[in-house]
Write a structure and sequence with these properties.
The complex is a heterodimer. Chain A is mostly helical. Chain A has two domains: 239 residues, MetI-like fold (Orthogonal Bundle); 241 residues, MetI-like fold, CATH 1.10.3720.10. Chain A is built from 24 helices and no strands. In chain A, helix 10 runs antiparallel to helix 11. The longest helix of chain A is centred in the C-terminal third of the chain and has 39 residues. The two termini of chain B are 36 Å apart. Chain B is built from seven helices and nine strands, in the order E-E-E-H-E-H-E-H-H-H-H-E-H-E-E-E. In chain B, the strands form two sheets. In chain B, strands 5-6-7-3-8-9 form a six-stranded mixed β-sheet, with helices on both faces. Chain B has a three-stranded antiparallel β-sheet with strand order 2-1-4, covered by helices on one side. In chain B, helix 5 crosses helix 6. Classes of the chains: A mainly alpha, B alpha/beta. Chains A and B meet through helix 10 and helix 11 of A and strand 5 and helix 4 of B.
Chain lengths: 506, 251
């Protein structure tokens, strides 16, 4: 049988699609091995050895606690603000809102379009732009995270509201309650559910994002990490990473213990009041910061002059293609690596080890991962894609592991009982049952990856991220504006394609 | 003769190129107790959806209290309550919260919010639920944890608490045992005098149970979307019903 015949015989379904992208490792491995050098092995060994030997000197711990407080402050404030604003905008951009209030649909399209632009640009880019305008300030970090996070949350909330059964809407409407009562009655449960499943998880994301912003100078534990890394002070670096791990674990523990009770929510009401009070406090605080800052409007006028652009169209197209390649490479890894690992390591002990490894890969910002990899590899598209790929594979690994634990295992056990091997039973009896939802999540993840290419691009000297950082550092606002348009366009096309893919899976 | 509460004038309703309802003329007067009969697919549910304004007719017009539906204000719309065949309850809310939803038309936004937060317990809801034989032990249970019969009674209670002038019901006796059917039927037909709620004296019920027909003062038979039988209970004879029932052991 020829190779082409074999390819023709392959039937594409969610299960096979989940495994096929693993072949990206053939060209990727070739490039990475080609660029490999032994120059940094000693440093890398030192980095690994420091994992179990973090520095606990008093002055380091004092400095760490100050930095940790800054990270918590940025993460918590941006989480509260982005969740609440995302909730409001999610309702305002949902079909059900426009149906109940009989508002022309073009307004919904306009809101969604603005939100799509806001979320297409990574918080790091927002941060770099805002730092140029407002200077280095923790409030800048909060706003930078808030902008894309609000738009992402709004999308997730409004998508959840799309699932409302219209028959329920008709039944409530036929009772003829006023529009606000109809709206709140219909959206209460779906929004409470998504708040539990997604809203609280966003706190963890905010912690990660505020760490990334810290790496680029906004403050917090990220700043500590990058300073220690540059000084090759790995013991102190691991003190920060362990502290970050602890912070994520504590935040998770708090989140998973909070469950909203729709029927007897009296205890939850107390928390809702605290949440609302904090939102008002942070909102006023940020508003006060914005109106009292020395904001230079000339930046905006400069961005629209287009008189001093030093990027050629060819450069822009080439950087855009590089960004797309990095995204495709990273997405392929994020999709296929977890199921392949599950298939190879089919025993509990190895899965447990992989979970620990995945935890650290999620926790360590991609910026640090790529810096570590650059110790013994040349900058390349492959390296950028690999970095983002393994970071995101750690996230999809967690999701897959959780879904596999929750799934009904009767079919798997049945297959084992009639003599199928464990691996075959795993594919047919477990993985295939939730490969659709896994791929739907991976397609959402690829949207995040497009945005994240900015982080590795800036460090790895490749793609639009690098070009943007160059233009920002030379205050070339016209170029920044054009690169942002290119970024947004790629992200929005990606979002539209993913929407189509997701609707096919559903 | 008094004015019709609802008047259907030459109504047709088309769905995917085929007519579900064809040229129906019907007037519902104050105090009417109408049973709608017909085989599955004859258009009973569509007729009820047209009567409560959920569906708009493809041709013809409907007047509610002598007005077209879009000109009704909220208080007028609230005079029509519906028990849907598919119940349309909110699964993740409790029985009591669902029953309270029947009051949303009369109460303000604060009530809607307090109901969702379970801050207030409303006596009327408890009384209506008791009348519908809903055990207090399930007042706080989520709808998706209840049996079919319990859900049916919650939907009935939600409709009754509305204290509407017209009650429309689509197969309201589904999932109920014979004793409960009698209780609920007597409630609908106002044979249970009780002080807690005002039950509408104008009802229109789509139903499958032949033995209940004698309780209604008007029987309308639907066949292929048209009215092919419109008789009083005095005119009711078994042989007239052959075209409207798929006879089973139950019937």
């Amino acid at each position: 049988m020829t190779f082409m015949n074999l390819v023709k015989k392959i039937k594409l379904n969610p299960t096979s699609i989940s495994f096929l992208p693993i072949f990206i490792f053939i060209p990727l491995g070739f490039q990475l091995l080609n660029n490999f050098h032994f120059g940094g092995i000693e440093i890398f060994t030192e980095f690994l050895a420091s994992i179990v030997n973090p520095d606990f000197k008093k002055e380091i711990l004092i400095k760490l606690s100050t930095r940790l407080k800054e990270t918590i402050y940025i993460a918590f404030a941006s989480w509260i603000l982005s969740i609440t604003l995302g909730l409001i905008l999610g309702i305002l951009s949902s079909d059900i809102f426009f149906e109940i209030f009989k508002i022309p649909k073009f307004i919904r399209f306009f809101i969604r379009f603005i939100l799509a632009i806001l979320r297409s640009i990574h918080e790091l880019i927002w941060c770099l732009i805002l730092m140029q305008i407002y200077g280095v300030n923790l409030s800048v970090g909060i706003i930078a995270i808030c902008i894309p996070y609000t738009a992402i949350n709004a999308k997730v909330f409004s998508e959840q509201l799309e699932n409302i059964n219209y028959k329920k809407y008709e039944s409530i409407k036929s009772i003829s309650s006023n529009s606000f009562s109809t709206l709140i009655t219909l959206i209460w449960v779906p929004l409470s559910e998504i708040m539990e499943n997604f809203g609280f998880y966003r706190l963890e994301c905010s912690i990660r994002s505020s760490t990334i912003l810290g790496l680029f100078g906004i403050g917090g534990i990220g700043t500590n990490i990058i300073l220690n890394f540059k000084a090759l002070n790995f013991n102190e670096l691991w003190t920060s990473l362990w502290a970050l791990a602890l912070l994520v674990i504590i935040s998770k523990a708090l989140i998973y213990n909070f469950k909203f009770n729709y029927i007897k929510p009296n205890k939850s009401i107390f928390l809702l009041i605290i949440f609302s009070t904090l939102f008002i406090y942070y909102f006023i605080f940020i508003f006060y910061f914005l109106i009292n800052s020395d904001f230079n409007l000339s930046y905006f006028s400069e961005a629209f002059t287009f008189s001093n652009i030093n990027i050629s169209m060819n450069e822009l197209i080439s950087d855009s293609l590089t960004t797309i390649l990095i995204t495709l490479c990273a997405t392929a890894i994020a999709i296929s690596l977890p199921p392949v690992l599950f298939l190879i390591f089919d025993n509990m002990f190895m899965i447990y080890l992989l979970r620990i490894f995945a935890f650290w890969l999620r926790l360590i910002p991609p910026t640090i991962i790529i810096l570590i990899l650059l110790i013994f590899n040349q900058p390349s598209i492959g390296l950028a894609g690999f970095t983002l790929g393994i970071h995101n594979a750690a996230i999809t690994f967690r999701l897959l592991n959780r879904n596999l634990n929750e799934i009904n295992k009767d079919l798997y056990k049945g297959m084992i009982s009639f003599g199928s091997s464990r691996r075959v039973s795993w594919i047919y009896g477990l993985f295939s049952m939730q490969s659709k939802s896994y791929l739907a999540y991976c397609s959402y993840r690829s949207e995040i990856i497009i945005r994240e290419t900015a982080i590795v691009g800036i460090i790895g000297g490749t793609g639009l991220g690098w070009q943007l950082s160059e233009s920002l550092s030379s205050f070339a606002w016209e170029e920044v504006f054009i690169i942002l348009i290119a970024y947004s366009s790629i992200a929005m096309v990606g979002e539209i394609l993913n929407g189509k893919i997701k609707s096919n899976f559903n | 003769m008094s004015k019709a509460l609802i008047e259907l004038n030459n109504i047709s309703f088309k769905y995917k190129n085929s007519y579900i309802i064809k040229n129906i003329n019907l007037k519902i007067f104050e105090g009417s107790q109408i049973a709608i009969i017909g085989k599955s697919g004859s258009g009973k549910t569509t007729l009820i959806s047209l009567l409560n304004g959920t569906l708009k007719p493809t041709s013809g017009y409907i007047r509610f209290f002598n007005l077209p539906f879009h000109k009704l204000d909220n208080s007028q719309k609230n005079k029509i309550s519906t028990i849907w065949q598919d119940l349309r309850l909110i699964e993740d809310l409790s029985s009591e919260q669902n029953v309270n939803c029947g009051l949303l038309g009369k109460k303000n936004f604060l009530f809607a919010l307090m109901n969702l937060l379970s801050i207030s317990s409303y006596r009327k809801a408890h009384e209506v639920m008791k009348i519908c034989k809903i055990s207090p032990s399930i007042f706080m249970k989520k709808i998706n944890n209840l049996s079919g019969g319990q859900k049916q009674r919650i939907a009935i209670a939600r409709s009754l608490i509305q204290e509407a002038q017209i009650l429309l019901a689509d197969e309201p006796f589904n999932n109920l045992d014979p004793k409960l059917i009698t209780t609920i039927k007597n409630l609908f037909l106002n044979k249970n005098n009780q002080n807690y709620i005002k039950i509408s004296n104008t009802i229109l019920i789509a139903l499958h149970k032949i033995d209940l027909l004698k309780n209604f003062n008007r029987i309308i038979g639907l066949k292929n979307g048209t009215i092919s039988l419109d008789i009083s209970k005095e005119e009711l004879k078994d042989n007239l019903l052959n075209d409207f029932y798929e006879f089973s052991e139950e019937n």
